[in-house]
Amino acid sequence: MIVNLRVDHKIADIQSMENISKDMDELFGQLQEKYSINEYVEISTCNRKEYYINNDLISEDDELLSHENQSIIIEYGQSAVMHLLRMTSGLESMIVGEDQILGQVKDAKHKAVKNHHCGKSLDAVFTKAIHVGQVVRNKTNINKGAVSIGSAAIDLAEKHIGSLDDKSVLVIGAGKMGKLVAKALAEKNLNAIFVANRTYYVAVDLAKDLGGEAILFADLEEYLATADLVISATSAPHAIITKERLLGIDMDYENIMMVDIANPRDISDDVCELGVKSFNIDDLREIADANTQLRIKEFGEAENIINEEFILLKESFKIMEVDEILGNLRASMEEIRQRETQKASVKLADVDGSVKILDNLTNSIVNKIFYDISKNVKKAAKEENTDVMDAAEYIFNFN
């Protein structure tokens, strides 16, 4: 059974999400200890945290899953898979239609495969989900002209401080989210743009693309003092900009705006006590809602594609169920063929070329017999003909 544990922007603000994510990690750890889970994929982005688990021992009425934290969404089987298909299609994102989630899911699957905890079932589900996300984007306009979290952060900034023309902007973090911010900033007529990253050469590469300047992380205070806008998107596990840190800088607190699009957050709440205009992912909801309204008409077509692909996925799983039966049958038939061929070969040893002829003959016979059996069993699986499948499992059980 596939189980999905998640918390996302739909049910939690950024602070709650940070706390609930910790609870979810703890719950997953308990499930892993109890059921020896070795097939799972973890997805973690700025506005969601999810686990996909495949384990046939887990029961829906397990006391661990009646978790006291009601903000953890728990779904099973088809519901869990449908959520994943919707997510890769961009329908579950805060910024509907954004493309980043597709890359994030690909990365999560790749990491699980690399670490040897993405088994056959989850591999099939995630491969299908990625395919669905691509098909939806190719066949609908769900992502045409769509904003990203990065460009939404720029829109938010302009809403509060006006045009960014001739402004000085500091981008902290040169990862994927930082690059999205940079892409949006590239269209602005800025006075200066500075990029800071813990790995300096990464900041250099991004700054070069922007025509900006890379700075050392150690020099952050100097550039915070002169920035009009700061956008932070690092993967740091704790806040990197705090009231205490800003107090040590000679700067005009009331004339700087900070937008934090990291999770966990990069900027602590107490900077507002200094008069700093500080915003985070929660503040992007208004822009996200406007973006959603522009794409409402694409939802129906996207949903149709998802439903069609889900049917195909269910059929492939039905085939997977009988593959083991057919594999055992094929192996048993091959063992019999080789044994009988060897016996006959001894008797025909004095005939030139007889061994090869006999081997080809018996192999051809087995292939022809197995083809019809395989075709009929797979047809029964697709049609959910459990009587035939049960009979096949009983008849072909060679253990």
* Number of contiguous helices: 12
Round the mean pLDDT to the nearest integer and report it. Answer: 89
Q: Approximately how much beta-strand content do the residues carry?
A: 5-15%
- Helix share of residues? 40-55%
Low-confidence stretches: none
Query: Total number of β-strand segments?
Result: 10
Largest sheet properties = 6 strands, parallel
Strands ordered across the widest β-sheet: 7-6-5-8-9-10
Distance between the termini: 25 Å
Decide which structural class fits the backbone.
Answer: alpha/beta
Q: Which sequence of SSEs, written as H and E, runs from N to C? A: EHEEEHHHHEHEHEHEHEEHHH
Shape: elongated
Using only C-alpha atoms, the radius of gyration works out to 28 Å
Give a verbal description of the structure.
With 399 residues, the protein is of the alpha/beta class. Helices cover 54% and strands 12% of the residues. The protein contains twelve helices and ten strands. The strands form two sheets. Strands 7-6-5-8-9-10 form a six-stranded parallel sheet. It has a four-stranded antiparallel sheet with strand order 2-3-1-4. Helix 9 links the parallel strand 8 and strand 9. Helix 3 runs antiparallel to helix 4 and helix 10 runs antiparallel to helix 11. The radius of gyration is 28 Å and the shape is elongated. The protein starts with a strand and ends with a helix. The model has no long low-confidence stretch (mean pLDDT 89).
